[in-house]
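Before relying on records like the one below, remember that each one covers exactly one chain. Contacts with other chains, cofactors or solvent are not represented anywhere in the record.
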Amino acid sequence: MIVSKNMQYAFQVEYPHEVLKMPLRPAGEKPDATRLNQELVGVLSGQGAKDVLVPGLVYARNLSQELEKAHASSFVMKVLYPGLLMGTGYPHMTEHAISEIQFGFSFDAVTGLPYYPGSSLKGTLRTPFDHALQQAKKEQDAEQVAAQAAEYQAYLVDLFHQAGATEMDTGKLAAFTSLTFAGQLPGETEACLPMAVRDVFYDTYPIGFSRDGAPAKIVDIDHITPHIDLKTHKQAPLQNPTPLTLLRVMPDTCFKFHMRLHDFVLEGKTYVTAAQKLEVFQQVLEDFGIGAKTHTGYGNLELVDEAQVSLQLHAAQQGA
C-alpha cells in the first residue's frame, strides 16, 4: 500500500516498490498497474488522508509571505486544460508492469507538492531572449536563423513597449539578457554582479485551486501515444503506436511565481523598471507556457487574482 503523507516519497519510493511487488500473470505476462496508479493519485490528492495536501499548500502560502517581505514580486497563474507536465525527464520506470507511470515528475522533497524549480523558470523566461540573439552555426542556415531572430526581437521589443519601457530596442536586448539572466555586465566575460543586486527566480509552488471549476485532484494519470519507426527510431504517424503513462498537474491548479527583480540600467540610465520587467515576464509565461510538451498544449497558464484561489479541491467531487 501507498501510505506516505509526503507526495514525493509516495511517488519516488513507495510507488515503484509496490510495482515491483506485483506478481506476474499466468504465462509470465507483466501485471497491470492501472489500479495502483489510481491508488497513487488518491493519496497524492489527499483522498485517503485529508491532511496530505493542505499542509503543503499552507506552507507554500507562508513561504510566499516571507519572500514578499524580502522584496520579491509575485503573481498567481492557473493551469489551463489539458494540464501541466513537470520533471518528465527524471527516470522512474521499473519495466515490471504494463501501464505503470513511465516518466518522472517534479515533487518537492519538503512539502511534497508539485513544483517548478527556479532554474527551470529562469530558463523558460530566457528562451525567447536567446532565440532573439541566436546566430547561425552553418552558413546555409544563416537566412532562416536571422529571420527567426528578427521575429523574436520584434516580439520582445513590443512586450517592453506595451509595459511602458518605450526606449527599449533590439540593440539593448543582449545587455538586458546578460544582466538579467547571468548577472554579467555588458562586455564582461567573467565579472558578475553581487547576488544582492542580481535578479533572482524562486521555486514555484501551488497555493490552491481556482474557485471556478476547481478540480477533484491536484494530479491525475495521463497518456501520450507517440508513433515510432522501430528501424529509424523517428516519428512515424501511422506506425507502432506506443502508449506511455505519466502524471499531470490538473487544470485550475494555481501556482504563485516569485521573482526579485531590479531595474535594467545602462550607463546610469534606467531603460526598464523592475515593475515593467515583471509585466514582460508575466506575458512571456502566458505566451510560451511552462513544463514539457507545451507544443501540444500542456503548460498553458492564465493570470488570476489571488483572492480567487481556494485551499480546497472541489469537495463534492473529492468525496469529502
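The CA atoms of residues 17 and 94 lie 9 Å apart.
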